[in-house]
Every structure is written in C-alpha cells, then in structure tokens.
C-alpha cells in the first residue's frame, strides 16, 4: 500500500473513531447532568448507568483514535483539549436535556441508530473497531430497550405527556437525518432498518412520525449547534485550569 | 535465570483469592474476566476482559490483581486488557452462581446456546422489533425462592445488575444481568 493510500485509510479510521467516541462522550456528559435530579431514584440510577456505559465506550473509541492518529494524543487530550470545531459528535447528542420527554426521545432516536451501527461495525475489517463495537453493542441493547419503553410510556400516557413527547419528537427530528449521512459508515440499508424500529415504537406510543425529511447537518465538518460550546466549557474547565493534574 | 518462577497453575490459584470489589463473594476468576496468565520473558502477564465498558471496578480489579501477585513475590506484573471476544455472563463459574444467590443477588440466566469461552462472540440475530429484545425470564427471588417477581429497573447499583421486587415476600433484590 502506498503511503498516500495508507494515510487516507488512517484518516478515515480516525474520523470514524472520533464520530463514535465524540457522540458517546457528549451524550454521556448530557446524561451525567441528570445525576441527582432524576424524577425517581431508579431513573437517576438508570440515566447515570447509561452515561457510564457511554463514557466507557467513548474512552475506547478515543483511545483508538489517538492510536490511529499517531500524534501522541491520548483519550484525555482528545476529550479535554479540542475546541468545539474539532468535535465530530452527532448534533442530536448535544441537544439540551429539556424535560424528561426530550431526554428520552433524544436517547431513543440515538439508541436505535447506535445499535444498528454497532451491529454493522462488529464485522469491520479492523479488528480493533470490531472488538469495541461488539462490546458496546451488548450495552446499547439495554439502553434501547429502556428508551423505547419510555417513549411508549410518555407518548401513550396522559394528554400532557403525549403532547410534550410529540412536540419534542418534532423538535429533534431534523437532527435524526444526519445520522445516516456519515462518510465512514455505509448508510445502505441503515435508514430502512432504523425506520422499521422507530416506526414500530412510535406506533405503540401513538406518536406521529414527522413528515419532514430535511436533515440538519454540519457535525462532520465541526459545525455544531450553539449548545455544544457551553457543554464543553463545563466539561473541560477543570482539565484546562489544572493541566496535567492528578488526584 | 529466575530460580523460583511459579507455574501459571499456581498463579491461577492465587488469582482465585482475588475478590470482585463490588461483589466480594466471587473471585475475578469465577467472574470469568481473567482470560490468560502467561510468562513473557521476565514479566507475568495477566490478560483481563472488562465486564462493561464503563465499569469503574475494572481499574480497581487490575490494581487488586497486581497487588495480590506482588504479595506473592512476583515483581514484574503486567495487566493487559482484551476486548474480544466480549465478556459474557456465560463465563461465570457454576459455584459463583450459587454464591451470588446466597449473597442476595439472583444469578444471570444462560444464553441459549451458550457462548464459547474462546471463540468469537456470537452475534445475536437481527431482531428489528425492539419489544422482542427483552427475552430474559423473570428471576427467582434469592430470598424466598418465589418465581413471582417483577422488574423495577433494568439498571441497578452497578452496570452489571438490574433491580427487582419479589411479589410474594415483597423484598427488593438485584439480579446479575444476563450479558
């Protein structure tokens, strides 16, 4: 393999690891903000368990990204010392927690995608990618079961919970399309499988699938919504105020 | 030339005394996370497979293993992490299941068919219907033995456990999730 071809492969692998690692990291940070604020003890524990799984997955992806890049950056350097324009997380993962419907619909739309992507990456030709994907996939099945349950519970709940869940679905929907437009992931069939999963749950939840197919894009080039900068400010402040600190 | 380099069988026995920090009735060997013990030149290399990606006990376990081996006089210990095949509760030793029950934690069900301890991780069938993903039968209450129990939450006090309540004795309990 020529040097040029090899570096293209590395760049593509690096981009893939950042996509998955950053998405897991940012969603983990969002869910972590619920710690101590969950509507019930079990919910508090479930949200933070999910956050913990995603954080563990983010560490694996970002460590591999650093290894592939070969520039001496480890998981911490990538998490704490990049600015918003260098992050490659999907836009949906940085959206605010809002009310419980917003947190759970965001989780469900992402989980349904995450599960399918990890299933496919389990067959990836790079054994390191396949290993992380296979491991993460097992954990994501729990996340998906739970978020799907909540979408049904809230959508098919009271008039108030139904209205708020439909409103949040309409709000987040434009951020869903971007999940299928990732250069490094073959979107072939992914969208159809995702639609089948999501439509079945939305039907159970008595929710209407938004008609618009317009997709907000930009995270692949580091163009994010305004929410990411503030999230990063909070996540990175201690590491940046005390560079290299240990405890 | 090292005169008293212990056999790996001996090391396995020592590791059988290293307990899981979160569930201190089962050892790291019974948990199925120690995948290999081998001498590489002058270093003893212990290969460990993590349970859950974000399990905070993973680093404690590595430190405990290292500490135990040093206490047995081994100076050069290296802990290596192996992700594939992914850990599964099918690797839990049979006696460990009974110990979990006695400790008040319902043991995990078995996958059907069981996953091979050495082979590639078996990929689950492509089930697109999310509702049919939840196939695990209700656990038996570890306190009173009743099969009449209900799930409270799929997430318990640690990533590996779920929360349940017994409908008969009314006691809450945790289950080690089938993973």
UniProtKB/TrEMBL annotation, chain A:
One of its GO terms (cellular component) is cytosol. Pfam families: PaaA_PaaC. GO terms for biological process: phenylacetate catabolic process. InterPro entries: Aromatic_CoA_ox/epox, Ferritin-like, Ferritin-like_SF, PaaA_PaaC, PaaC. This is Ring-1,2-phenylacetyl-CoA epoxidase subunit PaaC. The lineage of its organism: Bacteria, Pseudomonadati, Pseudomonadota, Betaproteobacteria, Burkholderiales.
Automatic annotation (TrEMBL), chain B:
InterPro entries: Fe-S_Maturation_MIP18 (IPR052339), FSCA_dom_sf (IPR034904), MIP18-like (IPR002744), PaaD-like (IPR011883), Zn_ribbon_PaaD (IPR056572). It comes from the Bacteria. Residues 9-71 form the MIP18 family-like domain. Residues 104-125 are annotated as: Disordered. Gene3D superfamilies: Fe-S cluster assembly (FSCA) (3.30.300.130). SUPFAM superfamilies: Fe-S cluster assembly (FSCA) domain-like. Residues 135-177 form the PaaD zinc beta ribbon domain. Coiled coil: none annotated. This is Ring-1,2-phenylacetyl-CoA epoxidase subunit PaaD.
């Amino acid at each position: 393999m020529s040097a040029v071809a090899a570096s293209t492969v590395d760049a593509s692998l690096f981009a893939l690891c950042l996509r998955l690692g950053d998405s897991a990291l940012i969603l983990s940070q969002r869910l972590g903000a619920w710690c101590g604020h969950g509507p019930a003890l079990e919910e508090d524990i479930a949200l933070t368990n999910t956050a913990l799984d995603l954080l563990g997955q983010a560490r694996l992806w970002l460590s591999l990204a650093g290894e592939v890049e070969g520039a001496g950056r480890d998981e911490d350097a990538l998490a704490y010392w990049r600015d918003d324009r260098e992050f490659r997380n999907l836009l949906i993962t940085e959206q605010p927690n809002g009310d419980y419907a917003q947190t759970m619909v965001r989780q469900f739309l992402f989980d349904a995608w995450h599960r399918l992507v990890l299933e496919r990456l389990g067959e990836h030709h790079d054994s390191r990618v396949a290993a992380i994907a296979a491991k993460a996939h097992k954990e994501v099945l729990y996340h998906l079961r739970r978020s799907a349950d909540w979408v049904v519970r809230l959508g098919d709940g009271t008039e108030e919970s139904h209205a708020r869940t439909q409103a949040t679905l309409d709000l987040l929907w434009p951020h869903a399309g971007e999940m299928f437009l990732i250069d490094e992931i073959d979107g072939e069939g992914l969208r159809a499988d995702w639609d089948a999963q999501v439509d079945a749950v939305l039907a159970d939840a008595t929710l209407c699938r938004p008609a618009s197919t317009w997709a907000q894009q930009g995270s692949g080039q580091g163009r994010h919504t305004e929410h990411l900068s503030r999230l990063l400010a909070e996540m990175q402040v201690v590491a940046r105020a005390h560079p290299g600190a240990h405890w | 030339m090292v005169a008293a380099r212990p056999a790996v069988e001996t090391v396995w026995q020592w590791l059988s005394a290293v307990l899981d920090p979160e569930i201190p009735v089962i050892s790291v060997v019974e948990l199925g996370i120690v995948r290999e013990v081998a001498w590489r030149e002058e270093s003893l290399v212990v290969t460990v497979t993590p349970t859950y990606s974000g399990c905070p006990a993973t680093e404690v376990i590595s430190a405990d293993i290292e500490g135990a081996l040093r206490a047995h006089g081994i100076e050069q210990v290296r802990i290596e992490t192996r992700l594939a095949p992914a850990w599964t509760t099918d690797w839990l030793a049979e006696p460990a299941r009974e110990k979990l029950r006695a400790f008040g934690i319902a043991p995990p069900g078995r996958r059907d068919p069981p996953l091979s301890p050495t082979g590639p991780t078996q990929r689950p069938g492509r089930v697109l219907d999310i509702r049919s993903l939840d196939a695990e039968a209700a656990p038996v209450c570890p306190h009173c033995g009743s099969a009449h129990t209900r799930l409270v939450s799929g997430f318990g006090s640690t990533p590996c456990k779920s929360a349940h309540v017994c409908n008969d004795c009314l006691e809450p309990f945790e289950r080690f999730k089938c993973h």
